[in-house]
Amino acid sequence: MRKLALYHLLLAAGLSLAACQDEDANALHGYAEGDFITIAPDTAGRIVETLSAEGDRIEEGALLFRLDDQQEEAAVLAAEARLEAATARFDDAAAGARAPEIAAARDQLTQAQAAARDTAEALERTQDLFTQGHVSQARLDQAETADQAARARVAEMRQRLSLVQLPARENALRALQADIRAADAELDRLADLQARRYVHAPTDGRIHRQIRFAGEMAGPAQPVYDFLPESAVHALLFIPETQLSGLPVGTRLRVSCDGCAAGLTARISTIAEDAEFTPPVIYSDNERDRLVWRAEAIFDGTPPPPGTPLRFEPQE
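RESULT FIELD:
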């Protein structure tokens, strides 16, 4: 009786071990991989300040570091002054002459009108004397010429007053408006160059590594941070030929690892077209000397840190 019970116990243990071996045979292995990006300024310069350190969680738009911008600031101030001058020239031309200039033109018209009255009275007296035979024809001609000149002067001063009260000509105003647009565009360009000295986070993420620090030079080819964007971690796994047909793109897998959240799953997003030999990192002896297909999967929950070894099992 005791032998029979021992037989049943050994049989159950053997079946349990075989089931574990079958389950392990269906398991896939891989690791978490991050799509890191480098954060570098668009223009070269000396780092004045860094505001983030390795491991910091960063929100989109947060200031990460800034470069020396003294030259850019001076250029912006100069451009603002040029824009202000161009605007003032246009306003002055559009408004016409100032009040003192208009008053001076009006005074000149008044003087011309008074002179014209004098010459008109002188002409009238000369005509009476000429009729009486007291003056010559030449004297009468002189009086008429003086009267004509005085009346022409009045017409000239009246026209000048009208012109002074008018704004500048249309073509001159267009030219001044073009000067304003050019100055404004130059100001925008210089302000953009200055803004590029302040580098912000392109998206939510985490500082993985700081490469350069305050006082060092940075530039397009001299990044300051290695940055891991949020949701930029995916799973990399290797599928044996025997399981390839049963794991098409879209298959959902259970994911387990040391430190992984319970119930973590991932969905296969891509599978390589060609096979390769055993994966670069071998996680168990039974994976050696096997052809596998490299695949990527997207996590459905919070992903583990890049580099974490992972175990995958098809979800029932």
